[in-house]
Backbone:
């Protein structure tokens, strides 16, 4: 097996992606809540733990550049003119030279930012073939329908002889079922030499990375193939493929959750994302969406039609044995304590709901902290925004807030205090006190009879 300390990854991310028909750069479109380029960065930096990662990007795609800089340690090079894959890799010449100097026999893997499903085991296998003596390793696959994919031509010993584009292939070559996935690995010390020999004498006038195979054979280098599952090779170029990729990734996340000990009662209706962590004995009912940065601990129940979405800066945690929903909405920064309850048509945002506290019905709890075993009645809202600034509401341990109450922040309801139903609370409430602000009830005898008589003339 290859030493990961000798692996450098170069991710090509400069393509325009015009088939996506979008103002958003293709590689920033998301699958499972993560941009396509994010999947490949995660693969290289976290799963493979490559020693070096470089990205070749378009200097005009600021959103992509910001994402790469904010979410990775990758070095960025720029491809201004789009002159083919060989030209794109050449833009990372500085990183290639450094990798070859660091370890001439190390591995450089070329990946694509729009191909997010390659498995880390596949990349390790390619690197191992370099370590074992090959100079180039090309990733191949055997699709049910090879269609117009480029073909990988090998000899009886399995050595790779050439990559033949479909339009240039003979009938015999088109009959080959081994197809080119695009991803390639190189012995570090040879890559710059091979790139320098690529020319653009073709109909498109571009420099093709695939030409490296025949160039390598001409100077006595060894080339081979690693075969992977077809699903790993899916490149996402348009909205149809984006939807296909989403389906593939959702099925993968659902299976991971269930094999990890969670119950999904209707898996196909549950949406998950890349940064969701689900513990054992969690139950997720149908039509639930869990997006962004969310951690659900063991024994929690997420009931039907709930929507949970955390962010990197304000993640969501749902502690053991908590109950969420049905029809609950948890926004960023919500933390639900052990055994806590968020019921139907309740929305929380930047709210800490401590152990055993209950917000059962029709409430908004935002910029708030609710103490252990407190009870928030139906229709209660924290009035946290004055049109300019947000303010915090604190509700103490064991406090009871009656139905249809408005808590105007900043305000504190101390431990054990009661708030009468229908109250508008603008001042702090002392521990174990009762606060009621609704008007005194007045009863006028026979008023209804006289009103009807007046209006039924």
Residues:
């Amino acid at each position: 097996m290859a030493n990961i300390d000798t692996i450098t990854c170069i991710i090509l991310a400069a393509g325009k992606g015009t088939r996506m028909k979008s103002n958003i750069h293709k590689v920033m479109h998301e699958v499972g809540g993560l941009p396509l380029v994010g999947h490949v960065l995660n693969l290289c930096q976290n799963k493979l733990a490559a020693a070096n990662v470089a990205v070749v990007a378009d200097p005009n795609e600021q959103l992509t550049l910001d994402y790469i800089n904010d979410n990775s340690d990758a070095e960025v090079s720029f491809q201004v003119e789009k002159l083919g894959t060989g030209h794109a890799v050449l833009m990372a010449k500085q990183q290639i030279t450094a990798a070859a100097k660091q370890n001439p026999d190390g591995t450089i893997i070329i990946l694509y930012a729009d191909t997010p499903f390659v498995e880390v085991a596949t990349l390790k296998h390619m690197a191992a073939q370099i370590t074992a003596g090959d100079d180039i390793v090309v990733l191949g696959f055997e699709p049910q329908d090879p269609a117009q994919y480029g073909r990988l031509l090998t000899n009886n010993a399995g050595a790779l002889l050439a990559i033949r584009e479909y339009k240039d292939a003979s009938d015999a070559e088109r009959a080959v079922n081994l197809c080119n996935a695009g991803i390639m690995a190189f012995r570090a010390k040879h890559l710059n030499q091979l790139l320098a020999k690529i020319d653009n004498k073709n109909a498109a006038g571009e420099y093709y990375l695939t030409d490296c195979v025949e160039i390598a054979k001409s100077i006595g280098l060894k080339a081979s193939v690693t075969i992977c599952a077809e699903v790993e090779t899916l490149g996402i170029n348009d909205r149809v493929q984006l939807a296909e990729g989403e389906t593939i990734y959702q099925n993968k996340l659902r299976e991971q959750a269930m094999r990890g000990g969670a119950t999904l009662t209707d898996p196909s209706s549950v949406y998950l994302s890349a940064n969701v962590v689900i513990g054992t004995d969690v139950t997720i009912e149908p039509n639930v969406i869990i997006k962004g940065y969310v951690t659900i601990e063991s024994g929690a129940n997420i009931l039907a039609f709930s929507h949970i979405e955390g962010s990197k800066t304000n993640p969501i945690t749902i502690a053991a044995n908590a109950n969420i929903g049905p029809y609950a909405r948890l926004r960023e920064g919500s933390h639900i304590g052990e055994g806590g309850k968020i019921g139907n048509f309740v929305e929380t945002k930047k709210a800490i709901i401590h152990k055993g506290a209950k917000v059962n019905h029709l409430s908004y709890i935002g910029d708030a902290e609710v103490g252990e075993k407190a009870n928030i009645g139906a229709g209660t809202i924290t009035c946290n925004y004055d049109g300019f600034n947000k303010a915090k509401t604190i509700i103490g341990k064991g406090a009871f807030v009656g139905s249809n109450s408005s808590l105007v922040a900043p305000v504190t309801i101390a431990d054990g205090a009661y708030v009468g139903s229908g109250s508008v609370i603008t001042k702090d409430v002392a521990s174990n006190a009762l606060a009621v602000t609704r008007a005194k009830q007045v009863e006028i005898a026979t008023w209804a009879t006289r009103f009807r008589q007046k209006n039924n003339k």
Notes: DSSP finds ten helices and 35 strands in the chain. The chain has a mean pLDDT of 95. The radius of gyration is 30 Å. The chain has two domains: 4-233, 239-435.
